[in-house]
Amino acid sequence: MIQKSWRCTLDTDLGTVKKTASFAQDTLLDVKNLHAAYGASEVLHGIDLQIGRGEIVVLMGRNGMGKSTLMKSLIGTLPVRSGEIRLDGKELARLSACERVKAGLAYVPQGRMIFPAMTVKENIETGLFVRGKTRVPAQLYELFPVLNEMGDRRGGNLSGGQQQQLAIARALATEPKLLLLDEPTEGIQPSIIHEMARKLRRIRDENQLSIMVSEQVLSFALDIADRILVIEGGNIVHETLREDADIERLTQFLSV
Ligand SMILES: Nc1ncnc2c1ncn2[C@@H]1O[C@H](COP(=O)(O)OP(=O)(O)OP(=O)(O)O)[C@@H](O)[C@H]1O
User: Fold this and answer.
1) Cα–Cα distance for residue pair 103/192, rounded to 1 Å
2) Which of 90, 141, 214, 229 has the greatest count of CB atoms below 10 A from its CB?
3) What is the DSSP secondary structure assignment for residue 129, as one 8-state letter?
4) 223 CA to centre of ligand 1 in angstroms
5) How far is ligand 1, taken at its centre, from the CA of residue 218, in Å?
């Protein structure tokens, strides 16, 4: 398993072995043999997946391959048929979505799903509520200054890119260990996509959280990922570290 193969360097001064790949040091999310279905139609056929602490994993795949279904099964808006979902050792598969958020999962769904009639600040406060807090952390406004400037504006009046920032800020307000983002670049203009990748890496570095992104834009995936997985027909069919990625092969997986 790639993620478990720690890369080590010899610290000659101390004569001890040091682990250097921070994300590979321990597993945060451990999914085993996950099956999920819509009614009688099974869509995920036994997914095994591990995400390390501080790791960014990008889940790629063509339309209809099961990316959103996996995200929904993890956060709990779609009940799992069978299998295990452990976050930091805690079993989540039978918990409600709300309990999973309290346990440290946050989810930005495809299409953002912010509350359009609520103000920007109120949207963020719905995330704070999970931790019993009321004050928006300064770090969120440093990351997304536009949300500070537009605090009193209705969420529904923001542009697509601004709504995406709001959805990420709301998710971060729940203080997650693992942030799940379903196709965050959808409908976002190319110049902002690179900025989004930079911000997500910064969020990972500053908060030491893990991120799993489902994505079809290969350049974004290569920009952000530590590791890339490919899903096809509800099975993970390919896995590669970013530095070993075979671009041609990944392009083939994504082409119709
Ligand atoms: N609510 C639903 N009821 C029944 N089948 C569904 C439902 N949602 C998705 N499916 C089916 O499940 C399969 C996987 O869909 P899913 O939305 O997970 O794909 P995806 O990889 O996220 O695609 P996209 O990139 O288009 O969002 C598809 O065959 C889809 O038609």
Assistant:
1) 31
2) 214
3) G
4) 26
5) 20
pLDDT tens across 12-59, in order?
233 333 333 444 469 999 999 999 999 999 999 999 999 999 999 999
Ligand 1 contact, 65 CB (< 6 A): yes
Neighbours of 9 (CB within 10 A): 10
Residues 221-226, mean pLDDT to the nearest whole number:
95
Domain span including residue 223: 29-250
Give the number of residues written for the chain: 256
Give the helix/strand (H/E) hosting 126. Answer: helix 120-128
* φ, ψ dihedrals at 245, nearest 5°: -60, 135
User: Residue 128 sits in a domain of what CATH number?
Assistant: 3.40.50.300
Separation between Cα atoms, residue 37 and residue 212, nearest integer Å: 21
Q: Is residue 146 part of a domain?
A: yes
Q: Which residues, in sequence order, are CB contacts of 50 under 8 Å at separation 6+?
A: 1, 3, 4, 27, 29, 30, 31
**233 CB near ligand 1 (under 6 Å):** no
Q: How far apart are CA 47 and CA 61, in angstroms?
A: 14
Q: Is 68's C-beta closer than 6 angstroms to any atom of ligand 1?
A: yes
- With the most atoms of ligand 1 within 8 angstroms of its CB, the residue from 41, 42, 58, 68 to mutate is 68
Residue nearest to atom 19 of ligand 1 (CA): 64
* Residue 16 within a domain: no
- The rounded Å distance from CA 15 to ligand 1 centre is 52
Of all atoms in ligand 1, which is nearest to the CA of residue 66? 18
Determine the average pLDDT of the residues in 161-169.
93
Residue with CA nearest ligand 1 atom 30: 64
Domain count, the chain: 1
In a domain, 10, yes or no: no
Residue 111: predicted pLDDT: 82
- Please name the amino acid found at residue 242: R
